[in-house]
Write a structure and sequence with these properties.
The structure holds 2 protein chains of 2 kinds. By secondary structure, chain A is mainly beta. Helix content of chain A is 5%, strand content 56%. The longest helix of chain A has 17 residues, at 2-18. Chain A starts with a helix and ends with a strand. Classes of the chains: A mainly beta, B mainly alpha.
């Protein structure tokens, strides 16, 4: 076994050394940003320089690729490294990614940037059940295998430090476990199919310990689907978290359904419905309906005007509906 | 790893096993029928974001972007290579502020100069040559098949400028069915646009031979023919 491992390591090392240096080298800076005007019932209005994300891409020696994204949030009040990884792309059908990367669980977590996300803000369930944006440190393999003309099966598998926190705590606060606090790794996978006629479906799982002291695990299971045809897009995603505690398990569910239609080249109305259930914790049972439109000023800039109705399902209704005017650009 | 329950482990093994059995035989078939870079670009890049004009970036920038995006989209190696070549072929030149001047504006300048010198122009580039649109044989490299693979996703299968990704472009792809508009553009201009690209349209000079470009010009002329 040790000999086999040595041979594999030696082979990997040799292939790195032999990688051709023919690819163009250099560092490229790209990114995206968005500013918002928010007017929420009960709390008034504010401008928010929400994000400025700088993306650095470098095609290094041969098939080695480096990417990093630095995020300045809320006018620079928060600065974070969204991802920073090295990728080795020489092996057919098997790309190896090491470093800090966005965990490719489901669809929304990877497709969250404001200039991609057609409805401003996160759907319920994708901030406190699946704690988007969830990036983690570890190793990942991913790729796609053609199954026909323009169709493929895709896969991702990862081992990362995982979430870490106190028993029963909010999952969102368990991110940024950059040096594994509980010394126990989490593993996950997504298996997907990109079909003809704009179909894209996938199923994901992520599991691991979040508190080693009390031997507690958290497991996320999810499914996502997107359908696109002639400017029409329908997408949905569901996620369930099972979080062990020192007493009973906590079950947390969330899902969203979103539809949009690109009329002409610049006007795209959209509607999103999302819901989150925390059985046993009524103040977390929430519903959202967002309605509005995106106005594309160009291929790189878009103004989104949306009204979000928030509903508390099992506690006294709170008047906290939100109007958002969001201008976002990619460069 | 040890924390993964035996049940979950079994499900994962069976799932990946079934996927492998399904995928690999059809993968071999798929390799024999490779989509073009234009098709891969049209089918995948617009799934998540607006399409960028190919001359937005230089070839080396596209190289890095395609690597990053192919990781996200989990493209196959062949798809990655095809779309990389396609985008590089229409890329902005290193150091250039933007793409070469649009061919039509060059033609407009010629026409304006000619008008100033001689009055209204009715030269050869304004007239549409007679064509026999019914003689378009089917085959692997005929104009019809080239058009289907390289052009139809933007310009539409019937040349109306309404292909599956036409909405992602502003301005929208030109309709070849507009007889009045087509009459104002010469064959040379059409060939040059196909060759060097324009606005969001990529260059096809590395993808198609000169003869193939000429045959596509002839083919798209037929869309405006009753």
């Amino acid at each position: 076994m040790n000999r086999l491992r040595s041979c594999l390591l030696l082979g990997a090392a040799c292939s790195l050394l032999l990688a051709p240096a023919a690819s163009p080298q250099g560092l490229h800076v790209m990114g995206y940003g968005n500013v918002e005007y928010l007017n929420q019932q009960g709390s008034g209005s504010t401008f928010d320089a929400h994000n400025l994300n700088l993306i650095l891409l470098g095609q290094l020696r041969g098939d080695i690729f480096a990417a990093a994204e630095v995020e300045y949030e809320h006018g620079g009040d928060e600065i974070a490294l969204e991802y920073a990884y090295l990728a080795y792309t020489r092996i057919k059908y098997l790309n190896i990614v090491a470093g800090k990367f966005i965990v490719p669980f489901g669809s929304f977590n990877a497709n969250h940037p404001a200039w991609i996300n057609k409805v401003p803000g996160r759907p319920f369930g994708f901030d406190r059940v699946m704690p988007a944006t969830y990036s983690d440190v570890g190793l990942m393999v991913r790729g796609g295998v053609a199954t026909g003309r323009l169709t493929r099966v895709t896969y991702d598998a990862w081992v990362v430090n995982g979430l870490a926190g106190d028993p029963g705590a909010d999952l969102r606060g368990m991110r940024d476990n950059n040096l594994d606090a509980d010394r126990s790794k989490s593993v996950g996978a997504r298996l997907g199919f990109v079909g003809p006629m704009g179909f894209d479906i996938g199923a994901s799982v992520h599991t691991g310990a979040y508190n080693a002291e009390d031997d507690l695990d958290v497991t996320l299971v999810g499914a996502d689907a997107t359908f696109q045809q002639a400017g029409f897009e329908l997408k949905g995603e569901v996620v369930q978290a099972t979080q062990q505690t020192t007493t009973a398990d906590l079950k947390k569910n969330g899902y969203y359904l979103q539809a949009s239609y690109l009329a002409g080249t610049w006007f795209e109305p959209a509607i999103r419905f999302s819901q989150m259930d925390f059985p046993g914790a009524s103040n977390r049972d929430l519903r959202e309906v967002s309605v509005g439109a995106s106005l594309y000023a160009s291929d790189v800039g878009v103004l989104r005007l949306f009204y979000r109705v928030n509903k508390e399902r099992s506690v006294t209704e709170v008047k906290d509906n939100l109007f958002t005017a969001q201008f976002t650009v990619a460069f | 790893m040890s924390r993964l329950s035996p049940y979950l482990r079994r499900v994962a093994f069976v799932g990946f096993g079934l996927a492998a059995l399904t995928v690999f035989p059809s993968a071999a078939r798929a390799q024999r029928d490779q989509p073009s870079g234009a098709e891969v670009w049209a089918a995948n890049c617009g799934r998540c974001h607006r399409m960028r004009a190919t001359n937005t970036y230089t070839a080396s920038q596209w190289d890095a972007i395609v690597t990053q995006m192919s990781l996200y989209a989990r493209l196959t190696p062949d798809e990655t290579q095809a779309v990389r070549q396609f985008l590089a072929s229409g890329a902005r030149r290193e150091g250039a502020a933007n793409a070469p001047a649009p061919v039509e504006s060059a033609e407009l300048r010629v026409r304006q100069i000619a008008y100033l010198n001689r009055g209204p122009v009715s030269g050869s580039f304004l007239t549409k040559p007679a064509r026999d649109c019914k003689k378009s044989p089917e085959g692997p490299k005929t104009a019809a098949s080239i058009y289907k693979v390289q052009c139809s996703m933007c310009h539409g299968s019937t040349g109306k400028g309404d292909g599956p990704v036409a909405r992602m472009h502003n301005p929208r792809p030109a309709p070849f069915t507009d007889a009045e508009r087509m009459a104002k553009v010469s064959d040379d201009s059409l060939a040059k646009v196909i060759s060097v690209g324009r606005n969001g349209m990529p260059s096809f000079k590395k993808t198609l031979t000169e003869d193939e470009i000429r045959s596509v010009v002839t083919y798209v002329r037929c869309f405006g023919t009753p």
